[in-house]
Design brief:
This protein is α/β, with parallel strands linked by helices and 694 residues long. It is 41% helix and 17% strand. It is built from 24 helices and 20 strands.
């Protein structure tokens, strides 16, 4: 009868403009899907060129090379007898579209352009693409000669259509269309489409995975059907980490779940599903059937091919499973670690260098690198030949096999404690002990000679010597002396990153890691061009509160007991003189606000879209048990003054792993001025008037 369909969803670690590598990974995924009996294979969004091409989409070369890859796929024997659904940019009548190209046995069946483009947060698709606004409309697309020579076709259907095979009907969605309020799957389902596909380029954000899973399951809960979601994975060249999570759902329940974080470049999820389960599920939903009788039909492209076999009564089908979500602490341990590995191997560097201060932020960064080493060793143990080849390239040893994370960490990770006369012995000891426990190559150095030399030049030129405030200096002098220390640490970090391996008789250089958290960046509590300035920053999108929870997770899961004393110590920059050998400076006192308050300000400013007045109005209710309206007003004004005074620092912020939706990243996520009127006179006056009224 033909009822059991076998389908495949892929998660691929594609890389923007890496046409050679992208082709290899696509071909491998199709080969795996076919070898496991799948009759339909779905890949991620724009997988041929890689999702993150950005302004390279404007270049005709990007479309040319995408067609060249498509021609290779069409010609390949691995693509025979399986419907292949791949993503690439296409120019139709001089308009650029984000498309799915669906083909079978050297014939293109349909080119389906994206209808709803992602254009918020990190996404700028409307900059490069135009949405297809002709609902249920199909046009002829004239194929380039390079494709005509392979397919023998001159034109193919282009537009909003569905595929009618011999046994079922398939309709495509592309990423954002699942999230749109008028998702195409709604009316496609009413028109008899039984299998919905979604090719995504969806990135990781802490606590986001359940939203995607719920959307997929709800897509078929009300309307019945099979939903297949493929997603990109890995770092494809910028701040985002695409987190896989390929999945297959039927009638509102998950039947197959892919991994969210892994070092596998190619992951193929295959499931066998019974079409009769869809039909019987829909049969009893009378409201759906009434709506279906009034729906406008989709153009159908007939395909002389079946996703099932004629005699499949005894074929076992997949049963519903419970989705297993990671905790936020696990997400921090795995996501940034995988991102770092991609960045390391693709940048062709030999490892990382981290200025390790003995505080929570740099220690959390060190723990993420250690987690990366764990993931690498585990992948090699599980037989991942790609990871082993990358490891050998990184360490420049063709015979090396990583087995112990601490030993591998020693090869690829250098930590450096940069002491000054203002540093305490406690932080020095904490940094050293943590380095020993994770296995990093650790350096202790003192920057006092360099600080004195720089300040000495200033004194020689001006005849004035700045002093710390505890010795009678002004705030300007105090801050300048702190900044000199911080900036010298950056210079030394890059010097040691370039030459440490040289001194050890090893080839290559190191990537410098930054360790400023998202809250400090928002407040601007960092020195411009200090150790927050680095090559990349794995924690730049993570809050202090989440980092503390992650540290606790590392104590329990990695047995890093050195972290206990780091957790209990108050956060401090250690840039001002010690008092009786003890640290007198603390971060929260310097900032004039707590890290907990900063997280709230950040979420209200970005996620709730609150300016000073709206933030005040929300907080007088949120904090009514702990603050008077006047105290709330003072806090809000102080935050916005500090935020606006320091916003210019975001223009030079180190590229950071994007993990929070209140990130102040100025590159493309949080677009704001960096020269403000920091008095906020009108806004603050509105707050003052409201305080008086209250």
């Amino acid at each position: 009868m033909g009822r059991a369909v076998r389908v495949a969803a892929c998660a691929l670690n594609q890389w923007a403009l890496d046409f050679e590598g992208n082709l290899e990974r696509i071909s491998r995924s199709i080969d795996i899907a076919r070898s496991r009996g799948a009759r339909y294979r779905l890949g991620p969004e724009l997988e041929i060129c890689g999702y993150g091409c950005s302004d390279h989409y404007y270049e005709s070369d990007t479309i040319l090379h995408s067609f060249q890859v498509l021609a290779k796929l069409l010609e390949s024997p691995v693509t025979q007898d399986i419907i292949c659904d791949v993503g690439m940019p296409i120019l139709h009548r001089n308009v650029r579209y984000n498309c799915r190209v669906i083909f079978l046995n050297k014939k293109i069946l349909l080119i389906r352009p994206k209808i709803s483009l992602a254009n918020a947060g990190n996404y700028r698709e409307l900059r490069w693409f135009t949405p297809w606004n002709k609902a249920r409309h199909v046009e002829e697309y004239f194929l380039p000669r390079i494709i005509q020579e392979v397919t023998g076709q001159e034109t193919v259907p282009f537009g909003d259509a569905v595929l009618a095979t011999k046994d079922t009907c398939l309709g495509a969605e592309i990423c954002e269309e699942l999230w749109a309020p008028n998702s195409p799957h709604i009316e496609m389902g009413l028109d008899g489409v039984e299998i919905f596909t979604n090719s995504s380029g969806s990135h990781h954000v802490l606590r986001k995975a359940h939203t995607r899973v719920d959307l997929v399951n709800s897509a078929t809960a009300k309307n019945g059907g099979i939903y297949i979601l493929a997603n990109q994975k890995g770092c494809d060249g910028d701040r985002l980490y695409y987190d896989g999570c390929a999945m297959i759902s039927m009638n509102g329940e998950t039947v197959a779940q892919g991994s969210q974080f892994s070092l596998d470049d190619v992951e193929v999820l295959v499931a066998t599903l019974d079409l009769e389960d869809v039909r019987s599920y829909r049969a009893e939903i009378s409201s759906r059937n009434l709506a279906a009788s009034k729906v406008s039909p989709y153009p159908r492209v007939k395909v002389n091919f079946a996703l099932s076999c004629s005699d499949d009564v005894a074929v076992p089908t997949c049963m519903p499973i419970q989705w297993r979500h990671h905790t936020p602490e696990e997400e921090i341990s795995l996501g940034p670690a995988c991102w770092l590995w991609d960045y390391l191997r693709r940048s062709k560097q030999a490892g990382f260098l981290l200025p390790l201060s003995g505080g929570i932020d740099s220690s959390a960064t060190a723990c993420i690198v250690y987690s990366m080493c764990h993931q690498v060793c585990l992948a090699v143990k599980n037989g991942n030949a790609d990871v082993l080849a990358d490891v050998r390239q990184v360490v420049n040893d063709e015979t090396y096999v990583p087995e112990d994370p601490r030993e591998f960490c020693k090869r690829v990770f250098t930590t450096c404690y940069m002491a000054s006369e203002n540093s305490s012995q406690d932080t020095c000891n904490r940094a050293k002990l943590l380095a020993e426990q994770i296995g990093s190559y650790h350096i202790n150095l003192n920057i006092d000679a360099a600080v004195k030399a720089i300040v000495g030049i200033f004194s020689m030129v001006t005849g004035r010597t700045p002093r710390f405030s505890v010795y009678g200096g002004s705030n300007r002098e105090n801050l300048a002396l702190q900044n000199v220390q911080a900036r010298i640490r950056m210079v030394l970090a890059y010097l040691f990153a370039q030459l440490t391996l040289w001194t050890r008789g090893m080839p290559g250089g190191l990537l410098v890691l930054g360790s400023a958290n998202v809250d400090e960046s928002l407040r601007g509590y960092l020195t411009k061009y200090d150790c927050s300035s680095a090559d990349i920053n794995p924690i730049g999108g993570i809050s202090k509160a989440d980092l503390k929870s992650f540290i606790q997770y590392c104590i329990e899961n990695f047995q890093l007991t050195a972290l206990r004393s780091i957790m209990s110590a108050p956060p401090t920059a250690e840039l001002e003189p010690l008092v009786d050998g003890q640290v007198a400076q603390t971060d929260e006192a310097d900032m004039g606000m707590t890290y907990a308050e900063l997280s709230i300000y950040g979420k209200l400013r970005k996620i709730a879209k609150a300016g000073p007045y709206s933030m005040f109005c929300k907080l007088i209710n949120m904090w009514k048990e702990i603050c008077t309206p006047r105290e709330v007003a003072t806090k809000v004004k102080h935050f916005f003054r500090m935020y606006s005074v320091n916003r210019h620092k975001m223009t030079t912020l180190t590229p950071s792993y994007h993990a929070e939706n209140y990130s102040p990243d100025d590159n493309r996520f949080d677009l704001r001025p960096f020269l403000y009127n920091t008095t906020w006179s009108w806004q603050f006056r509105c707050i003052d008037n409201q305080v008086k009224a209250l």
